[in-house]
Specification:
Elements lengths: L1 H38 L3 E3 L14 H10 L3 E8 L5 E3 L4 E2 L2 E2 L5 H4 L13 H8 L6 E6 L6 H18 L5 E5 L2 H10 L4 E4 L9 H6 L4 E5 H6 L3 H7 L3 E5 L4 H10 L3 E4 L2 H16 L1
Parallel strand pairs: 1-2, 1-11, 2-6, 6-7, 7-8, 8-9, 9-10, 10-11
Antiparallel strand pairs: 2-3, 4-5
Helix pairs in contact: 2-4, 5-6, 10-11
Bound molecules: magnesium ion.
């Protein structure tokens, strides 16, 4: 009887210790989770990582550098040529040629100083999808010619993502709300964030009700609307801020808990994040 009682007592003790350990592990895990959200990698290289090494913006070289640095994403700008090729360039012109009104072949007559031709969005995908830690942040540029051309660019972008079947590695951003809604209509699981021109930053509730997945606004918008970061997160929207090039602003938005920080200085942002890490662990 006494033997059984001791056995039972031993079993109860073991179960109690086991329960305590599981409780500790869960607690540790949740603390770790909290800390990791503070120090998670939010670094988005703006037009690739080009500045420090004097590479052309939006070149394949700048994409490769963003990947080498371990950025969470590399942003790039995409236009549609006159003959319906998606090409990567920020401005409406590429070394004097009007991108939208030129054929792809005409654009090949010019080159970046490093010798690269204007990259196609497909070439960006081929290079960017060789790895899986740096997402492709695809900015769809609106057409200056017509809304029809903008929506065509959206359709072709969706076709490209479907061709490479790597939706999880691509996120769309655009100033053109209709283009983003078109992408969501054609590819319901796409991640699409509204950039919002000056004076037309839509509130998180509207973004959510229009079925978009995030906001991507300039710094001043968040400072003028100080509930929007928190409200976006409550609604399950992602929050990106651009273009954050000063340490004090980086520090501010890290503390505000945005998901993505777009910068011309990814190296500097990594330094700021490293400085933040010991503080957040305290
Ligand atoms: Mg852009």
């Amino acid at each position: 009887m006494l033997k059984i009682s001791r056995k039972a007592l031993g079993l109860i003790t073991s179960l109690a210790i086991l329960g305590f350990c599981v409780g500790c592990a869960q607690k540790k895990q949740s603390v770790k989770k909290e800390n990791s959200s503070v120090v998670a990698n939010p670094v988005i290289a703006h037009r690739g990582a080009w500045k420090a090494k004097n590479l052309p913006e939006n070149s394949i070289a700048s994409l490769k550098e963003a990947i080498n640095l371990g950025c969470r994403g590399s942003e790039f700008d995409v236009h549609l040529t006159a003959d319906d090729v998606l090409v990567v360039n920020h401005d409406q012109t590429f070394y004097g040629l009007d991108v939208e009104r030129s054929t792809y072949k005409q654009l090949l007559s010019k080159a970046h100083p490093n010798g690269e031709s204007i990259p196609t969005a497909e070439e960006y995908f081929i290079e960017g999808l060789k790895q899986n830690h740096t997402k492709l942040i695809y900015e769809l540029k609106a057409s200056e010619i017509s809304k029809i051309r903008t929506l065509k660019a959206a359709e072709l972008a969706v076709q490209l993502v479907k061709k490479y079947d790597k939706n999880s590695m691509v996120e769309f951003i655009s100033f053109d709300y209709d283009a983003l809604k078109k992408i969501k209509e054609l590819m319901p699981n796409a991640r699409v964030s509204y950039v919002g021109p000056r004076g037309d930053a839509k509130a998180p509730q509207q973004i959510k009700s229009d079925n978009l997945t995030g906001i991507d606004y300039r710094m001043s918008v968040y400072k003028e609307n100080d509930t929007w970061i928190g409200n976006s997160h409550k609604l399950g929207l992602s929050v990106n801020v651009w273009t954050v090039n000063k340490k004090e602003d980086m520090d501010y938005f890290i503390k505000e808990g945005v998901d993505y920080i777009t910068t011309d200085y990814p190296e500097m942002l990594f330094e700021v994040l490293t400085d933040e890490s010991p503080k957040s662990a305290k």
